[in-house]
Design a protein that fits this description.
Elements lengths: L2 H13 L3 H9 L3 H8 L9 H30 L3
Helix pairs in contact: 1-2, 2-3
């Protein structure tokens, strides 16, 4: 997997099919910058891979919290 493939996969996993605008906001860059990276017109800035673990970790924590809430809800609704 190339850096571009990884960047694109992370963007889609975090933000869905319209990921580029949300990724631009999260990285505090212009959307055109993200578009140029995603299209392969510009090389990814090296600092991007320093920020991605935090973005993925934040989403992972958010999803883990939601999984727990859903599991708790499923457990209580089984007894209703």
């Amino acid at each position: 997997m190339t850096d571009l493939d990884l960047f694109t996969a992370i963007g889609a996993a975090l933000y869905g099919p319209q990921w580029q605008s949300e990724m631009a906001r999260a990285l505090d860059v212009n959307i055109r910058t993200v578009q140029r990276w995603a299209n392969g017109n510009n090389d990814l800035s090296p600092w991007v891979f320093d920020k991605l673990p935090d973005l993925v970790g934040q989403r992972q924590a958010e999803l883990a919290r939601l999984v727990q809430l859903v599991n708790d809800r499923a457990s209580t609704s089984a007894f209703e």
